[in-house]
Amino acid sequence: MTSGNLLTDNPELYEARFPDAERLAARWTEDCLRRHGAGPRVLDLGCGTGRDAAALHAAGRTVTGADLSEAMLAHARTHHPGPRYVHADLHGFDLGRDAFDAIVCLDSSLLYCHTNDQLDGFLASCRDALAPGGLLVAEMRNGAYFLGRTDLLDRPAVDEFTWQGTAYRSTTSLSVDRTAQLLRRTRVWATDDGSPPVTQHSAWRLLFPHELRRFLAAHGFEVLELHDGPGPRTERRWQEGESPGRTTDGDRLHLVARRPHTH
């Protein structure tokens, strides 16, 4: 059978598959916010289960978590209280003009903007939502990594874990759709409880560093940082106190951009 997204529909399963007891992504984000003097009002766009939003709240921020999945939002309100959680589509949203001092978009959420129009909608919404001087902090896959590299495409990745007594096995295959400029993912789930396999499909936009800079400039953003790590999802994980990198060659991109104080 085919499902839209087994993990999105089952937030507790998502957290079991991707444990983050150290809240590394939130700590990296807080470090970015502090280094660039961001104010307290933060929008976590694509907040998922709410773990990072709650960690930023615990760090003293006033946090709004936004997601398209009602299942994720319900889980976040129950299990990661503190932030305000709202339903929003990152392709275009209106949560108040100049309402936030920073917008955070982690774990490749920005790359669900598959088309130029969707990316324009996202950036226009971010600019309207940010106060002058506000920051956009994002972490995502790097399209440039796939220029001449096939290590992530050559063979499926297999992961296994157990949740609530059931063994789960996921087989994930990636392919590049060059015409659409998308990295397409097919993931097949199998369990040991006799359920039929579940196949799900998703895709990320493959953005290149200079392309991303051009989109940001077109919407009036000033790029403060754009580099390949270290970060929360790089092979050598970011550690407290590390400075941002200077290259954009690795498989992740880390972005900090500012809405200028002048309109």
From TrEMBL:
One GO MF term: methyltransferase activity
Start-end of Basic and acidic residues biased regions: 228-240
One of the protein's GO biological processes: methylation
Keyword Transferase recorded: yes
Start and end residues of each Methyltransferase domain: 42-134
Region annotation Disordered: where it falls in the sequence: 228-263
Stated name of the protein: Class I SAM-dependent methyltransferase
Organism of origin: Streptomyces tuirus
Lineage: Bacteria, Bacillati, Actinomycetota, Actinomycetes, Kitasatosporales
